[in-house]
Design a protein that fits this description.
Strand content: under 5%
Number of domains: 1
Shape: globular
Structural class: mainly alpha
CATH architecture: Up-down Bundle
Distance between the termini: 14 Å
CATH superfamily: dinb family like domain
Number of helices: 6
CATH topology: Four Helix Bundle (Hemerythrin (Met), subunit A)
Number of strands: 2
CATH class: Mainly Alpha
Helix content: 55-70%
Largest sheet: 2 strands, antiparallel
Mean pLDDT: 90
Order of helices and strands: HHHHEEHH
Strand order of the largest sheet: 1-2
Length: 179
């Protein structure tokens, strides 16, 4: 898990953007360290958000954006009838299974971005009020993903601290020390 992005961040634009995305992912992944499935699925604040739900959501969002950039349909189609399920574990889903899924999504994202001929390559998004109407570039896609994951990492920090008092700083220390 990346704790911080060094100034030289992999030497090129793609590497820098992927490193910042990985740093944001780490911000969320750290918040579930040492928790039981029950703790990770709990909602200790007025919000409906849980750590388990945030892990699932960001993995699903990343997969869907990259699938669209590839000209494919997302693995999971969401609409008003099932939107709530992207923030909760359902059926046999666990935090561990969602983290493993996110690892696969990460690998697919990185392979796709590194293999693209040009960061200026554009793609169209489907009609929806939350998508830009114009074509967007792969650069825009990575910036969108960084923004999305970073925003939810802040939510995750608050939820984790509400659960057991651990802050991001303590979780980083634990990760670095191997505790």
């Amino acid at each position: 898990m990346v704790m911080h992005v060094p100034a030289e961040a992999h030497g090129d634009e793609r590497g820098a953007l992927l490193a910042f995305l990985d740093e944001a992912r780490g911000g969320i992944r750290r918040t579930v360290l040492g928790l039981t499935g029950e703790q990770a699925s709990s909602r200790p604040s007025a919000s409906e958000l849980s750590l388990a739900g945030l892990v699932k959501h960001v993995a699903e969002v990343e997969q869907s954006w990259v699938a669209r950039a590839k000209g494919k349909d997302p693995a999971v189609t969401r609409d008003e009838s099932n939107w709530h399920e992207c923030f909760v574990l359902v059926g046999e889903e666990t935090v561990a299974s969602q983290l493993a899924h996110w690892d696969q999504v990460k690998a697919e994202t990185e392979e796709f971005i590194r293999s693209a001929p040009d960061m200026n390559e554009t793609f169209a998004l489907p009609e929806a009020p939350w998508f830009p109407k114009e074509r967007v570039s792969l650069r825009w896609l990575l910036l969108r993903l960084i923004s999305e994951v970073d925003r939810h990492a802040g939510h995750a920090d608050i939820i984790r601290e509400s659960l057991d008092g651990k802050t991001a700083f303590e979780l980083i220390d634990e990760t670095e020390s191997g505790s």
